[in-house]
Write a structure and sequence with these properties.
β5 and β6 form a beta hairpin. The chain is of the alpha+beta class. Strands 5-6-3-8-9 form a 5-stranded antiparallel sheet, with no helix packed on it. A 4-stranded antiparallel sheet has the order 1-2-7-4, with no helix packed on it. It starts with a helix and ends in an 8-residue tail after the last strand. The protein is elongated, with a radius of gyration of 29 Å. It has a single domain, classed as Sandwich (Immunoglobulin-like), CATH 2.60.40.
Length: 183
């Protein structure tokens, strides 16, 4: 009887101790480091310029090749709005740009082969020449741009710029005042 109790106690103790081995094993395998390898840095950077003349803003976005050979292609999109939008509606136009929701999306990826997006013109409507002289610089039109890396389907074709998956990624939001260089 004593021997049976001793065996039962040893089995129970072994069972309790072995229950914690799984988490300990997971800890050691999770935090193991691989040796060797090579660092790979992918990056992209866009620069944003605005030219303002009377009741018009022209937005130019340039791809910066500072990332060198590891630079990746990106899509860009622009949004413009004004607190006076009802009184002075905005009209936007540009070759290669398409309105998707509230954003104007440039359909061609920018990258080492295509450095510049076609200019996007934002015209402030409802203004007469007398209004321009009277208002001066008090009409505020805010313009922001975002860029996101191009995604590819399993067959290697790029996902279109208007696809929501592009813009559901973590985005880099930029405007002229956020920081120089558009990051």
């Amino acid at each position: 009887m004593k021997r049976r109790n001793l065996i039962l106690t040893v089995l129970i103790l072994a069972l309790v101790l072995s229950a914690g081995i799984g988490s300990a094993w997971a800890y050691f395998t999770t935090f193991a480091e691989a040796k060797g390898g090579m660092a790979l840095e992918l990056g992209y950077k866009t620069e944003f310029e605005e030219e303002v003349t009377e009741a018009r803003k022209v937005v130019n976005i340039h791809y910066n090749t500072a990332g060198g050979e590891n630079s990746q292609e990106v899509y860009v999109r622009v949004r413009a709005w004004s607190p006076d939008g009802e009184k002075y509606p905005l009209s936007v136009a540009g070759d290669g740009w398409q309105l998707t929701g509230d954003w104007w999306v440039y359909l061609t990826p920018l990258g080492p082969e295509a450095l510049d997006a076609a200019p996007l013109t934002i015209q402030i409507g409802g203004l007469e020449k007398d209004d321009l002289a009277q208002l001066g610089d008090s009409i505020n039109v805010a313009v922001v741009h975002e860029c996101a890396p191009v995604l590819y389907e399993t067959d290697g074709t790029p996902v279109p710029a208007t696809d929501g998956r592009i813009w559901d990624q973590q985005l880099i939001v930029a405007n002229k005042t956020a920081s120089e260089g558009g990051e």
